[in-house]
Amino acid sequence: ALPIFESDIKKKLIDAGLTESAIWGREKHLYSLYKKMHQKRLSLSEVMDVYAFRIVVDKMADAYLALGVVHSIYRPIARRFKDYIAIPKANGYQSLHTTLIGPHGVPIEVQIRTQEMEHLAENGIAAHWLYKSTEKETSQVHTKEWLKDLLELQKHTGNPIEFIENVKIDLFAEAVYVFTPKGSILSLPQGATPVDFAYMVHTDIGNACVGCKIDRRLAPLSSRLRSGQTIEVITATGAHPNPAWLTFAVTGKARNNIRHWLKNQQVTESQALGKRLLNSALLETHQSLENFTQNNLESIVKDMGLHTVEELYEEVGLGKRMAPLVAKRLLAYQTTPDGQTHSKKMKPLTIKGTEGLVVTYAKCCYPIPGDLIIGNLAQGQGVVIHKERCHKMIKLKKMNNEYINVVWEDKVVGEFQVPIVVDVVNGRGVLASLANAIADSNANIINVHVDERDGSHNTVKFIVSVRNR
């Protein structure tokens, strides 16, 4: 059967004037057929590449002419045509792919490409740079951009395994083709979201993204994109990535840029918190960091095995070093004018709500402004805020865990999560009524869980975000 198919296609190509084209085919080996059916759980009739042909032509225009020729010989299968010439893959791969119904209903897969495309596909990206060409190929541009993205991924990725996973996503995922507002086409992996689109356009666009429009309608940033949609990214000055984006962003470029920004942001916030904690601890002796010379601070930093004062602030802010102990070491380098030590109750650390990633609020007790609170220094997390009577905090105190006195600022900024538990009689529209009541009170629902108590009663637990009591 294979020579017959090849002879029919070759004859039609010559009749169409494509005398310089090359064609060869292969029949899928029985073991390869078995492996594909087993791995993808396919029946024999669902395997579309039992017979496969490759046609190599001289020019790009000839590739589309050859496509028309094979479609005139055998009927193409709908939704089995892919134009990787117009829209190359992320790694620069270009080819026309189509599947035909041959004699006796046998499916035939055909790939059509130029000599340069064949060279890239067979020999790889690095070898393609050495291939001499008289015709300007867009694959050169795509390959250069892809390699540039790879270098950026490697620079920002934490470890080699994470880097390989991100490259695999870009290389092997099925593509989704979407449009920019100006009509340009972007290729993204299956399951990509507007966040991935924003970072594909430019890193600064992704970092400043606050919303999006899909086909001119506002849509959530977690929406899964489909081919043919037009995506518009809404940005705002001062906006920044949200850690929640990591739960739905799929491209390596988006995920690495989000992690890179969050890491830098955490460093800045940790340093600010560490400085506040040290100043608070030094108030026991009427001292502050301003009373210490830069030489004193650098000497202590060197004794601790650190490199900079900022690194010391960061470790204190993340809870890796206890502020009172660091304060004592600072005081060893500083003598008061009268040579005496003054004692004073340590001033509590004020919580403003703007501390960012280095101050978190415990999920065991959900503290909100107005509650009596206490802070626990958790290594690597910074300060975790609990209610004063939180059962977990009482246990931590008994275990001699480090804790600090904290109070709310008079004007706290931000939103705080709190649970609301409601027992309801089961009925149509009950959940919608509860949600509307919460929305009317200017609170936002973060999560909802329903437990069935019996056939007629349910317990509904909402996690909502509020600004105050």
Question: Topology of this protein?
Answer:
Elements: H1 2-15, E1 22-27, H2 30-40, E2 51-57, H3 60-73, E3 75-76, E4 82-83, E5 96-101, E6 107-114, H4 115-123, H5 125-128, H6 138-156, H7 160-172, E7 175-179, E8 185-189, H8 194-201, H9 203-207, E9 209-214, E10 217-219, E11 231-235, H10 252-282, H11 294-303, H12 309-317, H13 323-331, E12 349-351, E13 359-361, E14 373-378, E15 382-387, H14 391-398, E16 403-408, E17 416-425, H15 430-440, E18 444-452, E19 457-466
Parallel strand pairs: 2-6, 12-16, 13-15
Antiparallel strand pairs: 1-2, 3-5, 4-5, 5-6, 7-8, 9-10, 9-11, 14-15, 14-16, 17-19, 18-19
Q: Can you give a write-up of this model?
A:
This protein is of the alpha+beta class. It folds into five domains: about 1-125, 2-Layer Sandwich (Beta Polymerase, domain 2); about 145-260, Ubiquitin-like (UB roll) (Roll), CATH 3.10.20.30; about 260-345, no CATH class; about 350-410, no CATH class; about 415-465, 2-Layer Sandwich (Alpha-Beta Plaits). Helix content is about 35%, strand content about 25%. It contains 15 helices and 19 strands. It has helices spanning about 1-15, 30-40, 60-75, 115-125, 125-130, 140-155, 160-170, 195-200, 205, 250-280, 295-305, 310-315, 325-330, 390-400, 430-440, and strands at about 20-25, 50-55, 75, 80-85, 95-100, 105-115, 175-180, 185-190, 210-215, 215-220, 230-235, 350, 360, 375-380, 380-385, 405-410, 415-425, 445-450, 455-465. The longest helix is centred in the middle third of the chain and has 31 residues, at about 250-280.
